[in-house]
C-alpha cells in the first residue's frame, strides 16, 4: 500500500510539473518579491520628501504652490495600501501608479524651482538630500524593471498551453504591469546642476 501511495504521489508531482503548476507558483513568488522591492524604494523616496520640502522652504518660502503640490502628492501616495493584493486588482494598481506619477511630477516641478535659488543649491543639506533622491530614483528604476520582467514571464506562462489550463483551474489571472506611457521620463533620475551658471559677458 505504501508503494502505491509513493507512486501516486510521484505521478501527481510529475503531473503538476508538466502542467505548469510549479512554474506558476515560482513566478508568482518572484513577482511578490519584486513588488516588495518596488514598494520599498518608493517608500524611501516618500520618506525624503518632508526633509526636502523643509530644506527648500528655508530658502524659497514664497514657492508655496509648488511646496504644497509636493506635500499633497506625498500624502496621496501614503494613503494607498500597496499590499500584494494590489497585484490582483488592475484598478488599484492603476491608482498606485497614478499617485506615484503625480509625486514624480511634483518633484520635477520642485527641482525646476530650485534652479532660481543659487544659495539653496549650494546648501549642504539640500545637496545631500538631492544625492539621496537621485540614488533612490535609480533604485526605483531597477526595481520597476525587475518587476516588469517578472510579470511578463508570469503572464506568458499562464497564457501558454498547457499551463493556461492550470491557471484557469486554479484561478490564476494576468497581473497588471507598469504602463509604457512616460516610462522614459519616470526612469530618468532627477539631476540638479550645482555649478553656478557663468556670469553673462558684458
SSE layout:
Elements: H1 2-18, H2 21-57, H3 64-78, H4 90-114, H5 118-121, H6 124-159, H7 163-170, H8 183-186
Please tell me about this protein's structure.
Mean pLDDT is 84; it is low at 5-15 and 184-202. The chain is an all-alpha fold and 202 residues long. It is 72% helix and 0% strand. Helix 2 (21-57) packs antiparallel against helix 3, helix 2 runs antiparallel to helix 6 (124-159) and helix 3 (64-78) runs antiparallel to helix 4.
As for the number of domains, it is 1
CATH architecture: Up-down Bundle
Number of strands: 0
What's the overall geometry?
elongated
The class by helix and strand makeup works out as: mainly alpha
Residue ranges: pLDDT <50 for 5 or more in a row?
5-15, 184-202
Q: What name does CATH use for the topology?
A: de novo design (two linked rop proteins)
**Major sheet summary line:** none
Distance between the termini: 99 Å
Strand portion: under 5%
- Roughly how much helix do the residues carry, as a percent range? over 70%
Series of secondary-structure elements, N-terminal to C-terminal = HHHHHHHH
CATH class bucket = Mainly Alpha
Please sum up the structure shown.
The chain has helices at 2-18, 21-57, 64-78, 90-114, 118-121, 124-159, 163-170, 183-186. It is an all-alpha fold.
